[in-house]
Design goal:
Binds to DNA and alters its conformation. May be involved in regulation of gene expression, nucleoid organization and DNA protection. The chain is of the alpha+beta class and 107 residues long. It has 2 helices and 3 strands. The radius of gyration is 20 Å and the shape is rod-shaped.
């Protein structure tokens, strides 16, 4: 029993170290969200901070409402990609660790 508890504590400590490393890696990653077939692109960090906005010159001067909608769609696409990236990264870190069903990590 004591040995099993020691193993569990070692696993938990390793998982904590792996989570910290994964968070640091995610913070430095960048994704590009896009809309309009790439006419509007948003580069976003793993911290969900917009880093760069690209708007194709063919859209400048067109319908302002459409352009605003496309920028919003590109931002949402980037946010969703960051969320998916984080989920995949965290799943690989916690693989093999017996976590309760539905347990959510605090980030």
């Amino acid at each position: 029993m004591k040995n099993a508890l020691g193993n569990l504590m070692q696993q938990a400590q390793k998982m904590q170290e792996d989570l910290k490393k994964a968070q640091e890696e995610l913070a430095t990653m960048q994704v590009v969200g896009e809309s309009g077939g790439g006419l509007v692109q948003i580069t976003m960090s793993g911290k969900r901070e917009a880093r760069k906005v690209f708007i194709d010159s063919s859209l400048v001067g067109e319908d302002r409402d459409m352009l605003e909608d496309m920028v919003a769609a590109a931002i949402n696409d980037a946010v969703n990609k960051v969320g998916k990236l984080k989920k995949e990264k965290m799943a690989s870190v916690t693989a093999g660790m017996p976590l309760p069903p539905g347990f959510q990590m605090p980030f």
